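Notebook entry, structure prediction.
Reason for the run: the old model in the group folder had no record of what sequence produced it. Starting over properly, with the input documented here first.
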Amino acid sequence: MERLGPQDASFLYLETPSVHQHVGGLAIVDPSTVPGGALRFADLVAVIGSRLHLAPRFRQKVVFPPINTVRPLWVDDANFDLDFHMRRAALPSPGGRAELIDYVQRVISRPLDRTKPLWELYLIEGMQDGLAAILTKVHHAMVDGIAAIDLASAMYDFAPSAHVLTPPPWEPEPEPDRATLLGDAIREGITHPLGGLVQFANRALQAPSRVAAQIGEVLGGLREILGGGVLAPEGPFNRPVGPNRRFAMVEAPVQTLKDVKNALGGTVNDVVLATAAGGLHGLLQARGEPTRDRVLRAMVPISVRADSERTALGNRVSSMFVDLPIGEMGAKRRLRQITDRTRYLKESNTAVGAEFLINIGTWAPPTIHAMAARAASRARLINLVVSNVPGPQVPMYIAGAKLLAQYPIMPIAEHMGLSIAVTSLAGTMAFGITADWDTLPDIAVLAQAMEESLASLRKSAGK
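New structure, fully documented this time:
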């Protein structure tokens, strides 16, 4: 048994019939690199099945203790059945982007089955130009963005030849009975807070100046966060969400964003934020909404995963809260304002303060932790999420099929209906836009506006 961390448990606490807390990815692959030119479902099952031992969590399920005093546990699923988790679908003719998006929207609008390991994988056939797609859906309690990239690196190959590994035999650990779970919950409920206090006291005694400095960083970060105002500005995406999702895709070569960054300054992530901000301006302009001097606050996740944790699943994330300028302005000026803002945030301690808030469940009982998580999700703390997860920029293959792009799929919050994410893999920056069905019926307008925003940045960079 392994207990979920506070961040991981939060995603279970936040889940409701309308708010599904799964992440995912839509990989577009070219099967022409497979012998015979077709990606067979049986071959994909063989490759994935041979590598499950590299990610043991994918054969485990969540078990909740009989009393709500401690966080849930990961336990082996003795009835694990790979056939349940790996599925096959075909698009109707003509198998273009519209048909693909329609299918993806339907799949991501359904919750995962909590009685089984929290993931699904779909091979989508019948696409135009002989392409195929692989849609993955994984509960956010299992992975953050970097963990998902690490998982993809384990499942993909760096050469066209498909390697089916010989996994070690797997014998599931017996699932604990109710009495064992109850005893463990009582013991953990008593020892966990005491253990945390003892650990903190030992650290303070061994390195008092370092602990004092860390406390100062946390307090400074909290002041920075609260100093900007607790509530975000009113935004068009802050409304109660329903269970159904919309999805859209935008893509560009990684080199394009690097060229903009090199010519105009900032980082690749700043260019991502500027692309999103320009797209939001275009969306609101198309809706006839005012944009003059307007900002929308984006939560920008930041990995705080140490090198030693690179292959571990779970969540190790902090955040920046970036006010995106969405008024009428040139692309160069928009990027400069974002670059100045993110540089200031990085030099401050906001990420440290945000990590403290995210991990406050380490000290809080699960009941209070769950209530706090739900209260935070209902407050207007942010207007949207913008996430950037970099990955290997080399050719990648799965079951012999070459990866062309991997579009990320993000969850949304109970009163926040838009998430924009981008994954850079194999030379392509693939933006995935996930939104509540009723909040963003014009999601295609946002996607088109983001393409135009990036084109304006590229023109400003002279590229």
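Summary: The first strand starts at residue 2 and ends at 3.
The old model has been moved to the deprecated folder.
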